[in-house]
Specification:
This protein has two domains: 132 residues, no CATH class; 31 residues. The chain is 54% helix and 5% strand. The protein contains six helices and two strands, in the order H-H-H-E-H-H-E-H.
Length: 169
């Protein structure tokens, strides 16, 4: 569920976003048992009106798809779509921008080339961007690795003490 405007996505990404968004809507409506704890649902769940937020999100995805000539079924976004903007951070947008460009480098180089002149990408219309780091719910690879290395560095002295006791005992 991108914080970036859907206009930057390639065809595969836009279709995947539509499907993910519909699944998120089903979760928020209580119609599925899977995906309920997906980290990216956090921002919708924490909003004042979770269903209106996801519907607003989907409405913008639908508008982008329609503008490209795709036939996404607007009737699947049932109910009101007026929602307050949700807050997202500059760090999140920057992280997603790098992530999207890496994906496009593999699957749609022409799309990637069309994005080259863009310095600061637009957010999805649902989001208002404020200064800040990558969102806490985002699964950033380096973040986990750092935590693991930190834990390891804390364990090394204890392992050494245990090994030393074995040598002397």
């Amino acid at each position: 569920m991108w914080t970036l405007h859907p206009k930057y996505l390639d065809a595969l990404g836009l279709v995947a976003l539509w499907r993910e968004g519909l699944l998120a809507q089903a979760v928020l409506r209580g119609l599925t048992v899977g995906y309920t704890n997906h980290p990216q649902l956090t921002r919708f769940k924490e909003s004042r009106a979770p269903l209106a937020s996801i519907r607003s999100y989907l409405a913008a995805v639908h508008d982008e798809a329609a503008g490209r000539g795709y036939r996404f079924d607007r009737r699947k976004v049932a109910g009101r779509t007026d929602s307050d903007q949700l807050i997202a951070t500059t760090g999140q947008v920057a992280y997603e921008w790098r992530h999207l460009k890496a994906k496009l480098a593999v699957r749609d180089r022409a799309r990637l080339a069309s994005l080259r002149g863009i310095g600061q990408p637009d957010p999805h219309p649902l989001f208002r961007i404020v200064p800040g780091p990558v969102e806490r719910w985002e699964a950033v690879r380096g973040r986990r690795r750092t935590m693991t290395l930190t834990k390891l560095s804390q364990l090394i002295p204890a392992v050494r003490r245990t090994a030393d006791r074995g040598k002397h005992g």
